[in-house]
Amino acid sequence: MFRIMFRTMPLIPVLLLQACSLTPGMEMETNSPLSNIEVPMMKDGKLVKEKAKVSQITADLIIERENSKRQEINDLPSQVVPMTEYRIGPHDRLQITVWEHPELNDPGGEKIDPELAGKMVQDDGMLYYPYVGNVQVKGKTANEVRELLSQGLSKYFKKVKLDVRVLSFQSHRAAVVGQVKTPGIQAMTETPLTITEAISRAGGVTEDADMSNVTLARDGKLYKIDVLRLYEKGGAEQNLLLKDGDVLNVSDRKDNEVFVMGEVGKQQALQINKGKLTLAQALAKAYGVDFNTSRSEEIYVIRTGELKTGELKPEIFQLNAKSPDALILADQFHLQAHDTVFVSTAGVTQWSRVLNQILPSSFTSVMSKAATMGL
Fold first, then answer.
1. How far apart are CA 12 and CA 142, in angstroms?
2. What is the Cα–Cα distance from 299 to 320, expressed in whole angstroms?
3. How far apart are the C-alpha atoms of 293 and 282, rounded to whole Å?
4. Which of 54, 149, 205, 278 is the most buried (most CB within 10 A)?
5. What are the chain's domains?
6. Under a CB-based contact definition with an 8 Å cutoff, are residues 247 and 282 in contact?
7. Average pLDDT of adjacent 10-residue blocks, the chain of 375 residues
8. CB-CB contact of 244 with 174 (8 Å)
9. Which residues contact 285 (CB under 8 A, 6 or more apart)?
10. To 10 degrees, the CA torsion angle through 323, 34, 55, 318?
C-alpha cells in the first residue's frame, strides 16, 4: 500500500500546477481602486472604455450617498407652472358670448359638441372674431381675451358685455404611460394637473407598478419621482405640477431586481419591495454568506449605473465583513435595480473544487484504481 502511495505522490504536484490555470469561480483583485477589466461608459453622449471605480463601503460612503439622494429631491424642476388661471393655446376652442347681440354668438350654443363648438385658436395662436379681426390670444387667460374683444367691439357697439370661456382644452397635454390602468394623453384644464392627479385620471396604478420609481421626462431631462414616499410620508415636493409636453412613466416592478451570486446559501434574483432592499437584507434572503467557503472581506455590489444626464457610469462597492459589526454598514447600504451582489470564494475552497474536478472521486478511489492497474 505504501508503495502505491509513493508512486502516486508525484502526480499531485503536476495536478496542482495545472490547477493554477483551472481555478473555478470568479474573483477580483483585492484592495484595487479600479476594476480588473474595462467596461463601457457613456460620456458626453459617447460610449468609451474605462475601468470602473471600486469604493469601500464605509460610514462616510453611506453618509455621502444619503446626502446625494436628498440633493436629488432638491434638483427636481421648480414649480414654474401657473397655479391659477389657464393659459390659452393653439387648438383650444373658446365660447364667446356677447350679451344683447345674438348675431355674434355661435348658433346652437350649448347643444353643440364642445369639440366642434366655439371658435378654435389657430396654430399661430391667432383667433378671428367678427368686427375685431385677428387677435393674438396665445398665452393669455380667458379674462385677458375678454378685455381684448371688448375693446375691439366697443368701436362698433355701445356698452359691450361679453363672456369668454374655454370649451375644449387641447393645447396643453401630458402623457401618462407605463403601469397605469388607462395610459394615454391627458388634457390640462383650468385645474392644475399634479402627478398624483394624472395617475388618478389614468385609473390608478396596476399591481406591477413600482411607485418608488416613477420618471418624469421634461425638456430633454429625466427626473426620478418617488410617488410612494409622497403617499406614505407626505413628501409634497414630489407632487409636481405637470406642464405641456411632460411624459410621466410608472415603471414595472418586475424589472426592479437584484442578483445575488457567489458563496451564498442560494444564488437568486431578489425583488426590491417598495424601493427598499439593503445589502444585509439581500444576503439574508439568499440564506446568508457561507463563511466556510467565502472571503468575507470581499463582498461586492456591482452597479452598472443608470443613464442619467447623458452619463452611464458603472460602479463597484466592496464590503469587508470580517468583523460582524460590518453588517451595520450592510444594513444601511441600499441596493438599486439591476445591482449584482457577489460574495468571493476563499482560496482553499477554490483549490478543493479544482481537486474535485480533476479527481472527481475521492483520493482513496484514485489510489484504488492505481492499485488495480498495478502501479
1. 92
2. 7
3. 19
4. 149
5. 19-56+256-350 (3.10.560.10), 93-168 (3.30.1950.10), 173-253 (3.10.560.10)
6. no
7. 44 43 54 80 81 91 84 63 73 88 68 68 92 91 91 87 88 92 91 89 91 88 84 77 91 87 91 87 91 86 69 86 89 91 76 53 48 51
8. yes
9. 260, 268, 270
10. -30
φ and ψ of 94, to 5 deg: -110, 135
Run of H or E including 18: helix 11-19
Are 98 and 160 within 8 A, CB to CB?
yes
What's the confidence (pLDDT) of residue 229? 80
Determine the residue type at 265.
G
Query: What pLDDT score was predicted for residue 111?
Result: 59
Judged by DSSP in three states, 141 sits in coil
What phi and psi values does residue 201 have, to the nearest 5 degrees? -60, -30
What distance in Å separates the CA atoms of residue 295 and residue 158, rounded to the nearest whole number?
92
For residue 206, the model assigns a pLDDT of: 92
Cell of 190: 383650468
pLDDT at 82: 47
Q: Please say whether the beta carbons of 238 and 257 come within 8 A.
A: no
Q: Which 8-state DSSP code applies to residue 202? A: T
- Tell me the C-alpha distance between 340 and 284, whole Å: 15
Q: How many angstroms separate the CA atoms of 28 and 344, rounded?
A: 8
- 48 vs 28, 52, 213, 333, 344, CA distance in Å? 22, 12, 28, 29, 28
Whole-prediction pTM: 0.65
Q: Rounded to whole angstroms, what are the CA distances from 166 to 135, 171, 212, 316?
A: 16, 11, 36, 55
